[in-house]
Design brief:
Layout (H helix, E strand, L loop, with lengths): L21 H12 L19 H7 L9 E6 L3 E6 L2 E6 H19 L3 E11 L2 H9 L1 H6 L3 E4 L4 E8 L7 H13 L7 H16 L9 H12 L14 E5 H7 L5
Antiparallel strand pairs: 1-2, 2-3, 3-7, 4-6, 5-6
Helix pairs in contact: 3-7, 3-8, 6-7
Bound molecules: zinc ion (2 copies).
One zinc ion (ZN) binds next to α1 and α3.
Length: 256
């Protein structure tokens, strides 16, 4: 038997075509660098409650993504949805990351609330990093961190902005310090906020291989529909792939 299985090329509608970028590759490597302990089914919940309805309704009037209805999850990663136009595949991590990114970017630019830490956080850095952070404490103070030099090559943080992801504050703070150490000479506030939002949103998002419930899928889609740029994650990867009814019919040779 010499039969080949033909996998036809799928033409994707123009609006779903995403610019290719190196960042896309970088992110995948970055994600693999720090593998997280595998969660069991029960532990996985998609918490989007902090992305307040009022925030999304305020800033967004988005009819770009049509209504669609989830029918299931494949490989713990891709949500399958349908509507009268056809079928959609949604990458749950990329979608969650887009939602988080827009929320954090908004919060970074608009929120001035801070929260006192129950136990102040003491951070010791290698000398060279310590010196760079020391020179740039104003950036952190502008972000509503209460941070001071404290002992040798160390800082103490007594309060932080409220938007830091709950339960992941320490990791987020370390990532922000890393970005400060790596910052370019001509510091650009918007670019910096963009990097911070990108880093924090990736860490705060549900990963591939996490099984979420239908209910959670619905919530994710609803939040994604309200995003300003729903079709890509902040690194440029697609969030939604669409197959029209006609494309599906062509694939199954029901239509020519
Ligand atoms: Zn990511
Ligand atoms: Zn991404």
């Amino acid at each position: 038997m010499d039969e080949k299985i033909l996998i036809p090329k799928i033409e994707v509608k123009e609006s779903f075509i995403v610019p290719k970028s190196n960042i896309y590759k970088e992110e995948i490597i970055e994600e693999k660098k720090e593998p997280e302990a595998k969660k069991t089914y029960e532990e996985v919940t998609l918490d989007l409650s902090y992305v307040k309805e009022s925030y999304q309704e305020e800033v967004v009037d988005n009819e770009k993504v049509p209504m669609m209805y989830p029918v299931g999850l494949v490989l713990g990663t891709y949500i399958i949805c349908q509507n009268e136009l056809g079928m959609y595949l949604i990458d749950q991590h990329a979608a969650n990351e887009r939602i988080n990114y827009e929320y954090y970017y908004y919060a970074l630019n608009n929120s001035s609330d801070e929260i006192n830490m129950l136990i102040p956080m003491n951070i010791e850095l290698p000398v060279n990093e310590y010196l760079i952070v020391k020179e740039n404490l104003e950036i952190l103070k502008d972000m509503h961190f209460d941070i001071e030099e404290f002992g040798i090559n160390s800082f103490i943080i007594r309060s932080h902005p409220t938007w830091l992801p709950q339960g992941n504050e320490e990791l987020a703070i370390k990532k922000i310090l890393e970005l400060i150490v790596l910052k370019e000479k001509n510091f650009d506030r918007n670019k910096f906020n963009d990097r911070v939002a990108m880093t924090v949103s990736c860490k705060a998002s549900i990963k591939a291989n996490d099984n979420i419930s239908l209910d959670e899928m619905e919530k994710l889609i609803e939040k994604l529909r309200k995003c300003k740029n729903p079709y890509t994650c902040p690194h440029g990867r697609p969030t939604i792939i669409f197959y029209s009814i006609y494309e599906l019919e062509k694939l199954f040779k029901r239509a020519m």
